[in-house]
Structures are given as C-alpha cells and as structure tokens.
Amino acid sequence: MIDAREKVTGKLEYGTDVVLPGMLHGKVLRSPLPHARILNIDVSKALRLLGVRTVVTGADAPAMPYTVAGQVLYDEHLLAREKVRYIGDEVAAVAATDPDVAEEAVSLIEVEYEPLPAVFDPEEAMQEGAPLVHEAHGSNIANYMNFSRGDVEAAFARADAIYEGRYVTNLQHHGYIEPHSAVAEWDSSGRLTLYIPMQAPTLARMTYASALGISPERIRVVQCHIGGAFGGKLEYKLHPLCALVALKAGRPVKMVNTRREEFTASLPRMPMVMYIKVAGLADGTIIGKSLRVVADNGAYNNYGPGIMLSALLRHDNLYRIPNLHAEGILLYTNKVATGPFRGFGNPQGIFAFESALDMLAEKLGVDPVGLRLKNASQKDDLTSHGWKLSSCGLSECIRSAAGAVNWTGKRGAHGTGRKRRGVGIACCLHVSGNRSFLPFFDGSSAYIRINQEGKAKIFTSETDLGQGSRTTFAQIAAEEIGLNVEDIAVALVDTDISPHGMGTWGDRATTLGGNAIRAAAIDARRQLNEIAAADLEANPKDIVAENGRLYVAGAPDRSITIAEAAKIFSYKQAGAILTGQGSYVPDDIVSVIDPKTKYGNISVAYPYAVQAVEVEVDTQTGEIEILNLAAAHDLGRVINPSAARGQVEGAVAQGIGYGLTEEMKVENGKVRNASFKRYDVLRAPDMPKMTIEFVESNDPNGPFGAKGLAEPALNPTATAIANAVHDAIGVRLHELPLTPERVLVALRKKTEV
Amino acid sequence: MRDFEYCRPQSLKEAVTVLAEKGKGAYPLAGGTDILIELKRRRLPASCLVDIKAIPELRGIEREGDALRIGALTTHSELLGSSLIQETVPVIAHAARQMAFPEIRNRGTIGGNICNAYPAADLVPPLIALGSSVLLASASGQREVGVAEFVLGSRQIAILPGEVLVAVKVPVPVSNAACAYARASTRKTGGIAATSAAAYLSADGGVCRQARIVLGAIEAKPRFVAEAAGYLEGTSISEDVAKAAAKMSVSGLSPIVDPRLSVQYRSYMTELMVRQAVLEAWAEVNR
Amino acid sequence: MRYEITVKVNGEDYEAYIPARRTLLDFLRDDLGLRGTKKGCDEGDCGSCVVLLDGTPVNSCMVLAVEVNGREVTTIEGLAKGDELHLVQRAFVEQGAIQCGYCTPGMVLAGKALLDVNPHPTTTEIKEAISGHLCRCTGYGAIVEAIQAAAESMDGGQRASGKTGRSD
C-alpha cells in the first residue's frame, strides 16, 4: 500500500485532523423528539456564554429544500424549519472557541416543541391516516416501483413447487472508526473551501451548492484521507451545515460527530420487509419469482429509491429466470434516514431471495448447490433485466465455495446432540461501475503528470476510502508507463484541480477509475515513447519501458530514463510538465436505465461472490458459531492480492455482524444502543476460520480484466449463515440478525408444531 | 464535559478531608473508565474530582487471616495477574476477565466496579456470593459493610458523604468450598453482561452444606436467591438438582429493561447461568 | 479549572496549563499537535486512541490529562527511530495489515505493548491483546499475522527451533 508508512507512523492526516488558523469548533443541537412542531427557539442564553461566536437556526438556512445528487425528491433543509422528523434531526448549530464551550452552548438553547404523532413502522406508514412525515409530499410513500418480465402468474400456475415467505432485515451501521467531520472556510471573495473525508467530492460540490443556495463554482471540495466509509461517506448534512456556521461566524469552523451522533444521525443501512415467492419445476429449474419490498426510508429520501431498486432486482441476474415481478414501496418514517452502505440494497434482497431458493430446493427435493448450478447465469448471457454479462465466474465460485466446506460430506449431517452442525451457501452478483443516476455523464477521467525527476502523479476524482484504490491506481499506471510503483503518487481529490469524476461508490473505482488512469498512462507513455524514439533514433513502436527506463527492443543499452525523457519534454515546452490524459466512457451501455421498467444494462461489469459456511448451533442457548467460512470471488483479475484478501476478510466480518450481532435497536424512534458498547461489532477473537478463493474471469471491460470486489464480499454472508442454520436445526429464520433469542423462538415453534 | 475542579490527595486523611470539604459535588476518581463516560454524557453533577490514585493505603492485595484484603485501586488487570487471587479466589480473576478489554482492565478498579453500582458489574455477584465486605474510611473513622448491603441499586451505594472505599475484604473459601461465576452477553468479546449468576457452595461428605446464589445484571440490584440456595443445601448436587434450583432462581424476577434482549430470553439465560455456576462450583468443590 | 502539569511524551518534556476536563487524548491531539492518536468513539470502546502510559496501553480518551502529571506517555509518533520503523510498524506494512489506517496507531501500540511483556504470544493471546481495538476494514486476520511476524522477527533464528511463533 503506497501510504502504509504514513499510516503506520500516525502521519496521515484525516478529516478529523485538519486544523486551520483561527478555527472555531461547531456542535449541532439535535431533536430529542421523533416528530414535533417547532414553536419557538431561544438562543439568547447560548449566545451569552463566554466563547460562543455564533448560533444558527433554521431561519439562517436557505428556505429552498435540497436533496442528494441525481435525486428528485427535494425534502431536506440544513436545519429544521417548521418541524423535526426524527430523534437526531438538526435543529440548530453553534460555533465556539472550543468544543466543550460549543457543547455547553448547545445545552443552553431552548426549543419549544409541540409533539406530533409519529410513525416508526414502514407498513404502518402505508396505512390510511398514518401521521405524515412530510405533509407537503401528501403521502408517506416516497417512491413506488412496479415492473415485470415475462409472465410470472403463468409460471406460478405451471410450477411443480412454490415457496412463499416474509423476510425482514435490520438497521445496520457502517461503524467506520473515523467519525464524520468537516472543516469549512470562506475566503474574502465569498468562495467556500470544504475539507471533508468524502467518497465523492464531485457529488458533494453539486449537492452542497444546492443545499447552500450558491453556485457550484463557489465551492471547492478538498478531500481528506478517509478512515473507513463503506458507503456512509457520501453526501452528509454536517458538511454543508459546517459551511453555514462558518459563513455566519466569519471564521473557519470544524465540526466532528460524536460516536453517539454517528449512531443517531448518520445514514445506516435501509431495513426492509420483503414478501417473496419463487417457483420451480421438478428438475430444479427456477421458472418464476416475485418480490414485494416495503422499504424503510427513515425521515429523508437520500438515495432510497436506488437502494430499493437494487434490492428488487440485482439478485435476479444471478440465474436464468424468465418470469419476474417486482414491486417496491419506499416509505418515510420518523426514524433516522437510511442511505448507502456496502451492498446498496443487495444484501437485503439476497436475504429474501437466497433463503427462498433453499426453501424451494427443499420443496423440490433437490440440493441447493445443484439448484444454483443448474440455473446459474453464464458468460455472454443477456439477463431478464437486460444486463450483459461480459464475464461470469459464478458456477466456478459455487463449486469452489461448496468444495471448501466439504458440502457433499457435511450437508444434512447435523448430528443429534445439543450442538448441531450444518452447511449453507449463498450467491451474489454486484455491479462494478454502476450506471450513473446522473443523466449528464458517466465514466471517469484522469491525468498523470511526470516530472523531470521521473516521478508521476495521478489526478482522479475516484477516492480511496482506505481500501487501497490509490495503490491499485499506482499499480495500473506503473504497468503502462514502465515506472516503479514507488515513483507514483496519487493526489487527493481537490475539485479545483482534479478532473471531474463521480467518486467511489457502486464499485466504480477500480473499473471506471482504473480504466481512465490506464488510458492516461497510455497517453503519457505514447509521449515518452516519441521522445525516446527521437533521442535513440528508433521507431516509437519499438520502445520498451521498464523500471523507469525506456529502451529499444532487443537493445537494452540503447536507453534513456523516463526522468530524462520527461526533462527533454519539459525543456522543449518551456517548462511544461509531461501530462497524459485519459478518459473512459463505458460503451455498450444504454444512456439511461428505463425509468419505468428499470430495463437496461446498468454496469460495465458484474463481479460475483459465493460464500459457504459451516455453523454449529447450540440448541440450548441459541448461539450460532461459525466453524468455517469459504468465500469464492470472481473479481475478474487480482491486481493487488493482499488488498483483495483484506477486502474480503473485512467485508465478511461486516457480513457476519449483519447476520448475527449488529442491529440498531430503535424504540419509539430512539436508538437505544448508540455506542460500540452496546452495538456489537465483531472483534479480533470473534473471527472464524476463513478460506478465500479468487476466480479470474478476466472481464473485457475491466482494466487488465479486473472488476470490483469491495461490496460483493458482504452481500451473501448473512444469508449463507441463515441457510446453514436451516441445515443444522431445520428451522428457517426470517429476520436478521440471527440472534440466539430468534433461534430459540424458532426452535420452540418447531417443536410445538 | 462541564468544567470541574481536580485534586490529588497524597494520603487517605487528606482525601477524606477534601471530600468532606467539597461536599456533594465531589466524586472520587479512580480508573475513570465509568465516571468519564458519565461526565462526557453530562449525566453526573460533578464539581470536583478527587483523584485517589496517589493514596498508598488503597493499593495492594494481601492475605489477612481467613480473608484477602484487596485495595480499592487494584485494577482488573492486577486481579487477573495476581497469583494470590488465582490460588485463593480464582472466581474473582475469572469475573475480572469478562470485563471489557485489556486497556480498560488496565485502568478500571475493583473499588470503581463496586462504587459505580452498575447492574452489570461483573465483580459484584461473586463478591457478594463469597460474603465480601467493603472497608470505608471517612474523617470520623472506618467502618465495614457487606457488599450485599453496600450496593443498593442501579448507581446507588450506601456511601456516606466524605467516605472513601479503601479496600474489599474477601473471605477465602475453605478447602471444601468454591465459588463460580457465569454470565451471558450479546457478544462474545467484551460485551456487557445481560445476565449473570454467582454460586458459592460448600460441601461435607458429598452433600452441599451451604449455598449462596447471587444474580447480577438482570435486576437493578444484585439478588440473593435464598429459596434456590436453601434447596441446594443438604442435597448431593446433580444436573437435575441444579436445573431445579435454577428454575427457582428466576421466579418472581423484576428484570430491568435491556433494549437489546427480551425479558423472557434474559430470564431463560439467567436460569442457564445459575445452572452453569452451580455445576461449576460443585465440580470445583469435589475436585 | 486549570492546572499546571509536566509530562514526558515520546521522550520530550512538556509543561502545560490545562483545564481539568481535558482528556489525555485531546491534550495530545489539540495541545501538543500529536494527531497520530485518533479519536474514534471517545468512550473507551474502539481502541483508536490507545497510547502507552508508563509502558502500559490505556485508552487516552478515558484518562484526564491532569492525571498523567509527572508520567511518561508514548504515542505512535514516538515509536520509530528517525526513519527506522519499529518492528511492529514494519510488520504491519509488510503483512498488508493496514487499510484505512485509522485504527492502525492504536493497534500498533497494543502490539508493541504485548510483545514487550510477552515476546512469544500465541495467536489467541494476540487476539486478546487487540480485542479492545475495532477495525472495520480488515477483519483482523492480517493484523494478527503482523504482530505474530513482528514477534518472530524480534528473535530471528529461534523460530526454526520451534521456540517461538506458537499458534493454537
């Protein structure tokens, strides 16, 4: 990893580490009520406190509502105006000379509320007469989708077996260790600089311009190193709010979330209630599936529709299923707004679908692995949703994962004692370079500058969230230019300098960003070859580059260094720096997914992940122990083996948490376990034995064949565990996480029956 | 955190004087692992923290006749690492090990664990089951109170203004007696106890002579379950006997709310923990 | 209320006049500018603020700066000797035990503190030593291996004779 040394010495500066001269510290006053009208706000006591510089309320914020990039439901304000919609909603903010004073000042702001009836359950929010979270919207339904392929009713009519079930998923927090932060500074011309750890600075600039009611040109976003994101560090209200406070204070302001605020007011994973029906033929062919999702948006829309869409259809593309129906209802509730989180709806949908597949297999009397292999999509398939699978290692992944847990030897051999064992499997495919929901552009661009010392610097707008994409970018550029990785740096994104790019989400970084960087590297190399050819009196086509040297093929002693070539370029161009430019526009992709039918090829490539687990269930305590977990991943091509392993292991840890322990407990709108003491993230001793297998399907659209890896690795974990539990104790668990209590209740029900 | 005063007395005498002087808003500061969280959440009206860590009388683990005297400042790590504790009351080391993580155990103290009176405190049930007491000092002298009487409820202790907990006195179980502790949590590593049970048993000729069972975490205050203990006394403890005693232990409980788990599940687990603690203690007695 | 303290941090003496409510963590980061020590939760649950207090790992968010008057603190900035990384730091780099890096300073110090008292830890002992440290990126595997590798590199040749690197 190119920044490992800085990280291990504590030198890397994260968002929380940014300090500006004269900087003030800001704090947010958040709503203590889930739904209430604001009658009055009195800030006078807070303003009188020594050290307080400013207090802002809804009256200071733009009246026009905003939303995040590419969304159409404008439902947010920087500070609550007439009412608050969840416990944690931003009501006021303070800037003071130190964080303790700011905190004190927040406690001195007096707000008079008129409590309103609140709604917490999405299915209740659908009912006639439910309290409206956004009156102006006229309904709690924030989004509705309904689409079909083939004829699902006809399929159900001719099926040999049908399984129907209701599945419920949990509110999971990203748990990145670095909390959200922002430092905002306005210059004398009225231009804002925001120092933020942000996955997508370009989107930030657009969204925050709209939130602040100014033109994007007046905003410069400087991306800070990110201490973990997992989808949680896209647009976040603290950033523009900090800008608003700084504007009123006339000084730079820094704001950092407490961990409690993280658990109360960030953007955790969307809970869903899912009604699924799958149909199959006696020979194990899946012929139809319908899914109805009731999704819990929380108080604001954010990227809700996209997340729900992903839960509705992504998993369908795993198999050749001709008849499909999907209905999605996205509901506002008086709870924390939910947002993107590794998997983006996919883990939820997979929980319903891949659980249902096992139940269908049982009804049909076929082996779950056999069923999946029989129906698995293959390379060059055009799926029912119009996805073009330019590479597909799914079947190989299924065989690999099943083999690694000794599927045939262990399936059904659960024993009879207090502790029962079982094996389970679940599959996923994901996007890699998700089709943008912004209509005006897609793809990625980059440039690479090579200076007279032969050192290269890459400029891109695809960020590194800590997963090591800067290292991958450097490796891609090194390979094309002929430099050593140590001689390549990757600049942090600065929207004043970096090329326009969409940022890191939807597993875009490696695929789209990597392709753009590769193109820029090829462009730089072309220029180097021309200089070398002229200098060495050879044909540019015959120039070979290696370890920072350019030489004539077959005559390694006829050479110059890349540094010398870059110097020649510079001298000839009045000091200009040799710059390679590249952009990547994914071809063969329809410009926009059909907004009604959702039909169309959404991504340039599709990675696959299959995980199989062996569990032991203690029938007395209900505890589930994972004895062995096998993860098989088709990531196209492995560019950085150590980073790839780290991605899978980290995602699996998060996936096991999703499956077994992690749940934000909300009671009457209040998160009751808002700390790492009571929110149970896996720790080092909790990790199971794990084997990882990489399948290289070499995607024609990926740089050197590579596809994304970070998101898919979490998607199937929880469901594979649930399927293994079913094998072990014969009960199907319908709700995540699979807590000991739920296991015991299900076991008791089974004995009662 | 709100602003507060800080002082660091060098002797017990100085500490009790300062505490008496500062009055209601003065709180002793030992390891700080609980009190700082309370202060950060603005839940404690502290105007002065009296750092007691420089006081020599509050340190050390010593055998005094039939009992151990454990200084209030003894950290969980020290409890874990003490060979004296390992030889005489290993259950204390076992309970200390359940708590949080090494770094927290390096700071958190036995005195703090008791005075904080958090229902899930891991040291309290075994200390009560063993019949331990606390030594308290004030400007007007010293007194000794049983831990069972000292812990009044969630965050409530029978401490008088100006008093400092000096040490914990733990009777060392005689050769035919043992104490065991079992607890359940929502996670394996470093989780807060959702329910716990300590069982102290003594035996004579294969028959249980004396039994004390204490439940922790499930109610606001550690609970002695006399009926179950009485049931065990005079029996030769078997799996079935333990099971029956465990069942008795959970009748009439009034569990505090734990947002993570239902009352039914915690009661069920309490029963399992009692069973486990009884059987472990019995196995130890008969070793 | 403010108090005067003297403290040795990474071998250097500091005098400061600070409020009682300032935690050691905020003192290191904001007063001394040693921002390698990270704030992740501020409640002793995540381990990213761990420093060595007289050689013992503690959560610096759970210690007041006034409490360390007269004592010695080692932070991540004090581990390398000039350009030469500490063995544990080197092992983290070499084993790929780092992703976002936010937990890394705390993890490295916990690893160093463990090896100081237990030069040949088992993997179980290593996992226990870092159990108070959350890492949301790596799944811990590479971190455990890095601490193991550092232990092995500390006494090079003995590994072959089976005396070190116990695994269980």
The SSE string of chain B, one letter per element, is EHEHEEEHHHHHHEEHEEEEEEEHHH
What share of residues of chain B is helical?
25-40%
If you average the pLDDT of chain C, what whole number results? 93
| Rg over alpha carbons of chain C | 16 Å
Uncertain residue ranges of chain B: none
Alpha-beta content class of chain B: alpha+beta
Number of helices, where a helix is a run of at least 4 consecutive DSSP H or I residues of chain B: 12
Number of domain units of chain C: 2
Q: Main sheet of chain B?
A: 5 strands, antiparallel
From the structure provided, what is the oligomeric state, counting identical versus distinct chains?
heterotrimer
The most extensive contact between chains is: A-C, 57 and 56 residues
- Classified in CATH, the superfamily of the largest domain in chain C is Beta-grasp domain
- Content-based structural category of chain C: alpha+beta
Secondary structure: number of strands of chain B: 14
CATH hierarchy class name of the largest domain in chain C:
Alpha Beta
Radius of gyration of chain B: 19 Å
Strand order across the largest sheet of chain B = 4-5-10-6-7
Q: How many domains, in number, for the residues of chain B?
A: 3
Strand numbers in spatial order across the main sheet of chain C: 2-1-5-3-4
State the CATH topology of the largest domain in chain C.
Answer: Ubiquitin-like (UB roll)
